[in-house]
Amino acid sequence: MKPKVGFICVHNSCRSQMAEALGKHFAGEVFESYSAGTELRPQINQDAVRTIKDLYSIDMNETQYSKLLNDIPEVDIIVTMGCNVACPFLPSRHSEDWGLDDPSGKSDEEFINTAKIIEEKVKDLVRRIESGEINLNS
To answer: Is 14 a catalytic residue?
Structure first.
């Protein structure tokens, strides 16, 4: 059974949504991707939507929406996006923080940079799961 990964931040509108989309795109064979936050937003950040569409031809508006922590299934791995002290806590077998700055309200360049970092980190997460570096059996 594939592990479930939860990408978590406070608002679930930008970084965690990008991570969910890229997780599904690049890691769908290895893990299931979910995203959630502690506060809902009426819609996903449209700059994030445009960036992911431009770079990867994925339309997050079609498949994703802002979700609360209890809207997603129990996860094996928690990845917080970099919300410091306000980071929500969920029980998991492994957790890590990616320390990403929120690009909301910033330039397209910031959004593209954030997407590329998330892509690299998703691919690294795949590598660490496949190599057993992240042990989910304990």
So the answer is: no
